[in-house]
Amino acid sequence: MEHLFDREHQIVKLFAPPFDEGERDPGYIRGYLPGVRENGGQYTHAAVWLALALFRLGRGDEGHEVLHALLPAAHAPECYQAEPYVLAADVYANPQHPGRGGWSWYTGAAGWFYRTAVEELLGLRVREGRLYMEPCLPQAWSGYEAEWALTSGRLHLKIERTGTRGLLLDGKPCGDGIPLNQLRGEHQVLFSF
Predict the structure, then answer these.
(1) Given the DSSP bridges, would you call strands 11-12 and 185-192 parallel, antiparallel or unpaired?
(2) Which of 42, 84, 86, 137 gets the highest tally of CB atoms within 10 A of its CB?
(3) What letter would DSSP give residue 28?
(4) Where is the Glycosyl hydrolase 94 catalytic domain (predicted)?
């Protein structure tokens, strides 16, 4: 985080410093200007994986900070110069163009971003037909509410930070995840942690 996350420009660099001088030859990436694409710029796929790792280490504040930095809205439009509604594959760290997005519509990074936000930040995971809640929220979040679509119904989820762990399905204890395939209609889920 100290060396790779440029908080001022909201850029998560693939590595630092970029290759521009010296005898070391990393291959094709040296063909890019320093701070552009893989040569010391942000490679969004890897940046999402940094957020994922932070969440798995229980560092929710930093994981959320990195996820937020990857959004186009974290950059001034006149600098970003890419579509404001899609993730760019790379964001320049080059001092002449800090924060400029490149190679937009990069669905691989978008897919990993979505999965990291849902499974790691919000902690909503399906295993063997059951929904488990294992959030890693920033400390400032007291919880959140969400809806989960079922084949034949809907779950209304309320996740609360209370200091006590518990899971209720329609007001009754449900200790081993929510059995998704058995539910029909509308249901209320309260998870406290």
Answers:
(1) unpaired
(2) 42
(3) G
(4) 8-123
- 0.70 surpassed by pTM: yes
Both tokens of 18, joined, read 């970029």
Cα separation, 193 vs 188, in Å, equals 17
**pLDDT for residue 175:** 82
Secondary structure of 38-99 in HEC code, one letter for each residue: CECCEEHHHHHHHHHHHHHCCCHHHHHHHHHHHCHHHCCHHHHCCCCCCCEEEECCCCCCCC
153-160 and 185-192 beta bridge pairing: parallel
Q: In residues, how long is the chain?
A: 193
Residue numbers in the chain where pLDDT is lower than 70: none
Residue extent(s) of CATH 2.60.420.10 domains in the chain: 123-192
